[in-house]
Each structure stands twice: as structure tokens, then as C-alpha cells.
Specification:
452 residues, alpha/beta, eleven-stranded mixed sheet, 14 helices, 11 strands
Length: 452
């Protein structure tokens, strides 16, 4: 196997270290990914936009910068960016005909931070329409007859297929965790407010959060560390928070204390997913972890309704102008969301926000007693359909509360598609969560790639 064919299997840290030690050039890395994309894109369709000549020119520029002594945590690392995130002068279609001609004049804050860290934006990844339900063209790399999940479809699929080592997505309900689980990769959604949303299509001011796709927990942490930071223009931005760029590769000094939560939607999980979760719990206990079965307080039975009211109320106000300007360019599902959201009264909306605060308090109290919560990330394997992106309901509570969450691959289901384990931490305790997730991933020991 040639060096260039091997390069596309390297992770974020391996690429950064290899470039730093001059074992290869950024141009070599980009050539490897462009070859991979050329071979797989006709089937997987993960990219909304990419231009090979531009990527190669940026790679050569980064090689020149490195030769001149430039440094950066992600210097030379290719990254895919979900197509609701502005990249200067690059088509940003939001998965919608309403944005067919949109080319932003300025990059989103998260893109600027990636580039400041030396990352190379390889291209724009496919999103569901306006980061909601209507799927884009992307297929699941494990089986192209199955959905990759959504709405960050292309980001998850591109990483799973080794067409890019890392990608950025967003989550308003389950749009990072679910596609990561369906595609068999790591999906990490940091605590709300840690990554700026400036320059990203706003669906729900309260709920929108930025996330990261990689092949392992340590790589997700490294990318996150480079893009976390205060953004004064974003009212929910958190100040004075630093995430260590490198996790301790050794296991925790002591096994973590975990809360095994069968949330109010547990009964919706497929048998494969329930059995896989039970096996994970057993393996953690065998490795010395304390794993307590925990039932969430009764108020969490309302969480999905609370989330829906907030999401629909804010989504209707975010997209009502689009509906007025381009009624024929929006799908039936997004039109229904806008119409329903307009019927939600201001008092109902504010009551939902108050209940969200209560839920956050209850969850924070629970997580004072544990290193992390473990729970399924989805109902099970990716559905055998390209008409919808699957059910986000296993992510709803954690997105609503703004807590950090990460999914790790945990096995295969009966149809040979990935299953995952979702790990949730306390708000702003991201380092602790990532260490617990890394410990869990090491104990599960699952690593398998899509068939070629």
C-alpha cells in the first residue's frame, strides 16, 4: 500500500504530528483525501461544495508557511464544514433553494478560528434543508440505501468514509450525535456557549450548538480546544473556559462513576440498541466502574414537549421572512414548523424557557454525583430510508439542557450497521466528560470501518 493511500486513514493528531516532523507534506495529505473523495463521492455524496484546485493551493501555502516556521494546533489538518456555516466567498446553500446564490462576504467565527489554528477547509458538507428534517443527497457509507442521519449528514458521512479527518456540524436536537452514531464515528457536542455561532444559520437561539466529528475522542478534544472561545456578539457565549488540547492518553486513575439512564424514550430503542447498551454497562462494571441505574426525575417526562415549544417558536421567527419571500422554495416540513411555531404564544414560550431552567438544575444536581451519564444516542441502526434522517429523540434532553454530550461507536447491529453509546457530562465539565468517554471507548474497544 502506498504512502498516499495510507494517509487518508490518519487521525487529526497523527496528521498534525506528521506534518510537524516533516514525515509528509500538507499537499500529500490533501492529494490523499481528494483521491478518496473522487472514488467515493459518486456513491456517498457527502459534499455540497469542494474545489480540488483551491484545496491544493491552500495546502501548498500551508507547506510554505510551515517551512517558514509557522505553527498551529491544527496546522495542515483538513476539515469539512457543514453547509449552514459561512465560508468567505464560498457557496453556502443551507440545503435550501432559498440560498442558491448566497456567497458570504465573511467567514463564520468558528471557521476563522479553525484557520487561525492552521486547519485547511477542505469543503462544505451536505446539510438537511435549513438544518431541519428534509434530507440532502448524502448516503450512509456503511450502506448507501440507509440514511446517514441529519441534519449534519455530510459531515458524519465524510468522516466515516475517511474523506476528511474531522468535520464541523451543528445540533438543535440530535443533528451531531445521531448522524455520528449512524455512521460509526465520534460526535462531540460541547457545552452550550463554548463555540461561537456567529456566521452560522440560526435556527433556535436557545438550542443551537456547534459540534465536531472525528474518529476518536482525543481528536475531537483537539479540534474543540482550537475552536472554543468567547464571542461577545453571541449572547450565550461563555468566557474564561479553556479545554486542554490533549487528553491524557492513559485511562483515568480510577474508573469513572457512571449513571446508566433509561430516559423517558427508552422503550423506543430497538432490541439491538438495548442489548448493546446492556453489554456496555456489563463491560464497564467488569472493568471496575461503578454504574448505577438511574431514573430521571419526573419533570424530565416533559422535556420533549418543552424542547419542541422552544424550537418551533424560535424556528418560526428565524424563518418567517424566508417563508414570505420564498414560499415555493421551502419544503412542506419546514413550512409546517413555521406555521405551527407562529401559533405558540409568548407566554407558552417563556413558560417553556422557565421549565428548561428547572431541568438544567435537576440535571446538574444529578451529575454532581457522577462523572457522566450513559444512554443510547439513537433508536438503533440507521433506518433503511433516504426519505428521512431518523429520530433525534434520544438527544433531546441533553440538547435542551445545553450539557456536553459525545457518542462513541459501540458495535454493529443485526443489519451490519453501527450502534453507539452516548456519554453526557455536567455543564462546563467537558474535560471530565471527555476523559470518561475515552475510558468507555477503550473498554468497549470497538473499531471497524465501513465496507469498501
Amino acid at each position: 500500500m502506498s504512502m498516499k493511500r495510507e494517509l487518508h486513514h490518519l487521525g487529526v493528531k497523527e496528521i498534525a504530528q506528521g506534518l510537524r516532523h516533516q514525515r509528509f507534506r500538507c499537499e500529500d495529505i490533501v492529494h490523499a483525501y481528494l483521491t478518496r473523495i473522487e472514488n467515493l463521492e459518486p456513491t456517498i455524496k457527502a459534499w455540497a461544495w469542494f474545489k480540488p484546485s483551491d484545496a491544493l493551493e491552500r495546502a501548498r501555502e500551508l507547506d510554505r508557511r510551515q517551512a517558514g516556521g509557522a505553527a498551529g494546533a491544527l496546522l495542515g489538518v483538513p476539515v469539512g464544514v457543514k453547509d449552514i456555516i459561512d465560508v468567505q466567498a464560498v457557496p453556502t446553500g443551507m440545503g435550501s433553494a432559498a440560498f442558491a446564490d448566497y456567497r458570504p462576504e465573511k467567514s463564520a467565527r468558528v471557521v476563522s478560528k479553525l484557520e487561525a489554528a492552521g486547519a485547511l477547509i477542505l469543503g462544505k458538507t451536505v446539510t438537511a434543508e435549513l438544518a431541519y428534517l428534509t434530507p440532502g443527497k448524502t448516503r450512509n457509507p456503511w450502506n448507501p440505501a440507509h440514511t446517514p442521519g441529519g441534519s449534519s449528514s455530510g459531515s458524519a458521512a465524510a468522516v466515516a468514509a475517511y474523506c476528511v479527518p474531522a468535520a464541523i456540524g451543528t445540533q438543535t436536537n440530535g443533528s451531531v450525535i445521531r448522524p455520528a452514531a449512524f455512521c460509526g464515528v465520534v460526535g462531540y457536542k460541547p457545552s452550550a456557549g463554548l463555540i461561537s455561532r456567529i456566521g452560522i444559520l440560526m435556527f433556535s437561539y436557545t438550542l443551537d450548538q456547534v459540534g465536531i466529528f472525528t474518529h476518536d475522542v482525543a481528536d475531537a478534544a483537539k479540534v474543540a480546544a482550537a475552536i472554543i472561545g468567547l464571542a461577545p456578539e453571541d449572547g450565550d457565549s461563555v468566557s474564561d473556559f479553556v479545554l486542554p488540547p490533549d487528553l491524557n492518553p492513559a485511562p483515568l486513575f480510577q474508573p469513572p462513576k457512571l449513571a446508566a439512564v433509561r430516559s423517558p424514550v427508552w422503550s423506543l430503542a430497538d432490541v439491538d440498541q438495548q442489548e448493546n447498551f446492556t453489554q456496555c454497562v456489563a463491560s464497564f462494571r467488569k472493568a471496575g466502574a461503578a454504574v448505577d441505574p438511574v431514573v430521571l426525575p419526573e419533570i424530565f417526562n416533559q422535556a420533549h414537549d418543552i424542547h419542541r415549544r422552544i424550537m418551533y417558536y424560535e424556528g418560526a421567527r428565524a424563518f418567517s421572512v424566508l417563508q414570505t419571500q420564498y414560499p415555493d422554495r421551502l419544503s412542506a416540513p419546514i413550512n409546517r414548523l413555521i406555521d405551527e411555531g407562529k401559533t405558540i404564544s409568548e407566554s407558552t414560550y417563556h413558560a417553556a424557557l422557565e421549565n428548561r431552567t428547572r431541568l438544567q438544575g435537576e440535571l446538574n444536581e444529578l451529575l454532581q454525583r457522577y462523572d457522566a451519564i450513559i444512554t443510547p444516542p439513537a433508536r438503533g441502526q440507521a433506518p433503511a430510508s433516504l426519505e428521512h434522517t431518523g429520530d433525534p429523540t434520544f438527544c433531546t434532553i441533553w440538547t435542551l439542557c445545553g450539557t456536553p454530550a459525545i457518542t462513541i461507536p459501540s458495535g454493529l447491529g443485526a443489519q451490519g450497521l453501527p450502534l453507539g453509546l452516548q456519554v453526557i457530562g455536567a455543564y462546563l465539565q467537558d474535560a471530565r466528560l471527555l476523559q470518561a468517554a475515552q475510558w468507555c471507548a477503550q473498554r468497549i474497544g470497538f473499531r471497524q470501518d465501513p465496507p469498501e
